[in-house]
Amino acid sequence: ESADKGAFDHYMLKEIYEQPRALAATLALDARHRVADELFGEGAAAVFDKVQAVQIVACGTSFHAGMVARYWLEELAGLPCQVEVASEFRYRKRVQHDNTLLVTISQSGETADTLAALRDAAPGDFLASLVIANVDNSSLVRESDLVFLTRAGVEIGVASTKAFTTQLVALLMLTIALGRRRGLSEDRATDLVNALQRLPEYVQETLELDRDIEDLSEAFIAKHHALFLGRGIQYPIAMEGALKLKEISYIHAEAYPAGELKHGPLALVDNNMPVVAVAPGDDLLEKLKSNLEEVRSRGGELFVFADRQAGFASEPRVRVLNMPHCPEVVKPIVYTVALQLLSYHVAVQKGTDVDKPRNLAKSVTVE
Ligand code: G6P
């Protein structure tokens, strides 16, 4: 078994490092460097022509991918999008827009609640179903109308890493395919594809920050709680960062949209509560800066992951990790990689079973 890990101590670390290759493999473009509808299966073009809304259903880390996709689908494709965890979605009475595409997201393609959500969807509720899965021939793949297979390769670590980032590539490709029909210009689509093509480079640059992230991780080992803040599309990335830390290091971590800090969690901030901020250099940065000030003035220690061109500098009680400068649209993917490494190093130093965290299963096939 250890031979499969190559030079790595854990599958999780190996899988984190496989991301540049997995992301490039998932970005399958046609000869004209475009996202072809057929990538989503036979008949995708006819379905995509009719889509007026998107309902995303998933569990765990895959749910976070759906939450990121909502920002893309609404902003770039102008499509109303709802995202819900499968175990909630399936047990409530819903009101559905006409011509809604049901999108399930699942690494394994076997998660019981996600599969049940697909199976329970009443005929006529949805225009069609599309699954984004990493395992060919899995139940969700067999039972969905349309399929996009991510090319992450086998993922062994229970905490999902490369499956998540490849799901995000798939979801941005879906956004481009749907957006083209809804006012996304060819120039903008080309920009998005170019950003995706350079994504493996930005992820590689992030992997090169591994030692710096390992240094930061030491501040978390003795803590029992941590707070993750993000704004906009980085809020779900903060959620994913918090989930990773919980899963493998057993540190209680919560994610908040940065603006909600003053509505509750600020009461918890002191020198025992590290606060991680995912703060790319976008138009919301200034507001996030004032939130960060609130944390610092209460004795909290801040860990800011920020674009190296954003003008954030380390100072007492604020440690900044300078992230590669890259297009806004791929930042959720690039920042995820840094947070994966942070959790990994905290867990290793705490001596937990990184690849098989207690009580968790890779694939949850019971309800
Ligand atoms: C389990 C795994 C998670 C995963 C979730 C959904 O909880 O431990 O890593 O995100 O299931 O799995 P899926 O295969 O549907 O993506």
UniProtKB/TrEMBL annotation:
Molecular function terms, GO-annotated: carbohydrate derivative binding; glutamine-fructose-6-phosphate transaminase (isomerizing) activity
Taxonomic superkingdom: Bacteria
Location(s) in or outside the cell: Cytoplasm
GO biological process: amino sugar biosynthetic process; carbohydrate metabolic process; fructose 6-phosphate metabolic process; protein N-linked glycosylation; UDP-N-acetylglucosamine metabolic process
Keyword tags: Aminotransferase, Cytoplasm, Glutamine amidotransferase, Repeat, Transferase
Predominant place of localization: cytoplasm
GO CC terms: cytosol
E.C. code: 2.6.1.16
Active site: K362
Keyword check for Glycoprotein: no
UniProt domain SIS: residue ranges: 44-184, 216-357
Reactions accelerated catalytically: D-fructose 6-phosphate + L-glutamine = D-glucosamine 6-phosphate + L-glutamate
Complex formation: Homodimer.
Function in brief: Catalyzes the first step in hexosamine metabolism, converting fructose-6P into glucosamine-6P using glutamine as a nitrogen source.
Protein name: Glutamine--fructose-6-phosphate aminotransferase [isomerizing]
Organism annotation: Seongchinamella unica
UniProt gene name: glmS
